[in-house]
Design goal:
The chain has 83 residues and is an all-alpha fold. The chain has one domain. Helix 1 runs antiparallel to helix 2.
Length: 83
């Protein structure tokens, strides 16, 4: 008997990582708003990490569950290094 392919996805791990990534972005934005020095590369990288997390989550779905469907069409492009 063949088992269907399964992908393990830890929602708890994802949420923990996302919270840490948002905290980094929050701190960078706070520094920018306060007029403190910041590294534009750090800000871009922090935002790109959030975009990656969002894009990844939008690809996680349960087949046949209308409330948890594949939303990979919402993929956002990363901020280019030349910006």
């Amino acid at each position: 008997m063949t088992q269907p392919n399964k992908i393990a996805f830890s929602m708890n791990g994802f949420r923990r990582n996302l919270s840490g990534d948002v905290a980094v972005l929050r701190d960078l934005v706070t520094d920018v708003l306060a007029g403190e020095y910041y590294d534009p590369d750090d800000l871009r990288d922090a935002m790109n990490q959030i975009i990656c997390s969002s894009n990844s989550l939008n690809c996680v779905f349960v087949a046949g569950d209308a409330g948890f469907s594949d939303m990979s069409d919402l993929e956002l492009e990363l901020i280019d290094e030349q910006v």
